[in-house]
Amino acid sequence: MFPKRAKAEKPxxxxxxxxxxxxxxxxxxxxxxSRDAFAGVSDIGEIPSVKDQKRRDMCxxxxxxxxxxxxxxxxxxxxxxxxxxxAIRYIQRCILEGGRFALAFPRGFxxxxxxxxxxxxxxxxxxxxxxxxxGADANIASGNIESIKVEISxxxxxxxDFPEVCHAVRALEGKVQRCHSQTYxxxxxxxxxxxxxxxFPTIPGSxxxxxxxxxxxxxxxxxxxxxxxxxxxxxxxDMVFLxxxxxxxxxxxxxxxxxxxxxxxxxxxxxxxxxGKIACLMAATxxxxxxxxxxxxxxxxxxxxxxxxxxxxxxxxxxHETMWLGEYAKIRNTYNADDVEDQARAHKAATAYYTAxxxxxxxxxxxxxxxxxxxxxxxxxxxxxxxxxIDDGPEAFASECQNAPLREEKVxxxxxxxxxxxxxxxxxxxxxxxxGATKLTAFIDVHDEVLYYTVCAWGDRFTGHVVDxxxxxxxxxxxxxxxxxxxxxxxxxxxxxxxxxxLAALDALAEQLLGREWEREDKSTAKIERLMADANxxxxxxxxxxxxxxxRHAAVLMPSHGKGYTSKMSxxxxxxxxAGEVVGHNWRTRPGKNLRYAMWDVNKWKTxxxxxxxxxxxxxxxxxxxxxxxxxxxxxxxxxxxxxHVVEGRGRxxxxxxxxxxxxxxxxxxxxxxxxxxxxxxxTTVGMAPGPKARKRLKLSDIQRGKR
Length: 708
Fold this sequence. Notes:
Helix content is 36%, strand content 19%. It is an alpha/beta fold. It folds into three domains: 53-309, 3-Layer(aba) Sandwich (Rossmann fold), CATH 3.40.50; 317-400, no CATH class; 421-680, 2-Layer Sandwich (Nucleotidyltransferase, domain 5). Helix 5 packs across helix 6. Residues 1-19, 34-40 and 691-708 have low confidence and may be disordered.
């Protein structure tokens, strides 16, 4: 018997036994095979050659040729008008050389399609590296991105001549997850393909390599837009497109018009930084006189912008009144309303009448675009224009088709003067609450570098008293223009990003107003019960809501969304309520994400406050000011910075307010917001519906006794 061999002791800390060498080699081979297979799926392979280099080169510096060559089913489907060609030259100049251009197209003139295809031209040829599209809201802007994605991924002509971009896009096969792993010759392409952003693949030698196209809503926040490239450099937008940047609602509100213009001038045009000027092009339709588009087209108001207005009709027909608006309109509109088919018969009869007398009815008329009509039911672009005029009326035609909306007749309303406001000073010391006041409210008007505020006390029948007002940071002088403010938020918080410094400023002002007790004339104290902050500005909206949500004073705070409801709009308190809404006197509060916010009619509340400032001092229901007349020169100018006009529309008469050119109205906004806040917390007057009451909580004993 051989003796047993002693087991070798395993050294302390040694690794566990491994697979034998053949098994390990097999596992390594399988792992490498898996990596190779994955790399094969991720790599886009060889990029096809350009099919027609001459065709591609001929379009490099000719946008019009590019539009009609590569998009035969959209911008190449029908010949452009001379006005289209002129607008396209403006777009080309803007892309290649920069500048600010405003182009007003009639509805249906393919402006959005032209813009979307022009963006592709700029990106594919490398004319621009970072293109940002701003629509009226985020959903509309995302639609622009989706349309561009369809062309880049499906357009065979683009694939043939721009394979360095389109081949990589098609290799995704619609699977966005592949973007992060897609490679070309072993190097990541860094392609992005999301709902609101496209980044072209990084391909050596490609003119459009890494080009960025993003879409945003105009009021959704634009500050800080930048993109880090694979080499570590930060790319800022170098081209901005404003595609129909206003809605019917915003165009009807002077307040929203001003907000959107401020966003363009203060935020969007500054996206490129100070190193170089950003190119900006707007394609839109004028909706109302003095709306955002109308003002950017006015060289007197905005001399830095070059503008073009394109009308649908250059000259009406010689038989405008007699045949078109006479017999033709009569035939088109005469049908049996009870017969669902009879209107179509009348329209065909009108077309037959036009066809029979076309020479006479076309005489002297001049349309902008001969191709703009429905070939199935109309015979010409002139007939199409008259059909819109007859069916929708001259007001709609003037704005939607001519870019020259009709101006409404306005009747001047009340005439509050600075002297009348100054006369309301009642001698009570600043910061002291009158004995008759029962509730305190405050409002903050939010601006990028200065916050304005008022604190107001309210009593019987909405008798008001301005307890305090001012700015943060304190300007330390009794009178200044907003544009000349010397102490700024950015100076108080140097080096901080916009959102952080605005949050810090709002916190500081809230602590100043809410972190104290306000002394009454009888030496008792009161605290502010409602502080609202303006959240209408696109960038400020997010900041204000975050401030209201996380502040230690959150129970008292509420974001404010004021809007001027015009005669053409339904009153705010008549709209159908959604779940959780509370509706009051020209306001409603609505539940949001972890907070409640207020929506209110600025026109109604400005009229309400103006009427009370006009009352003689001592009148119940009037508004007074602390201190002496000499203290309030700036406040009086802000309170009278707007003109009011009575406008009639849809059977209603509404007093609408417009800011006087060159004036500041920020303290007026604060006073009006404070008044609305008072209504929200229950202050009422004669003729005003009482504020919402809390629902009585029933006791168990009441329920058992059958009480309700």
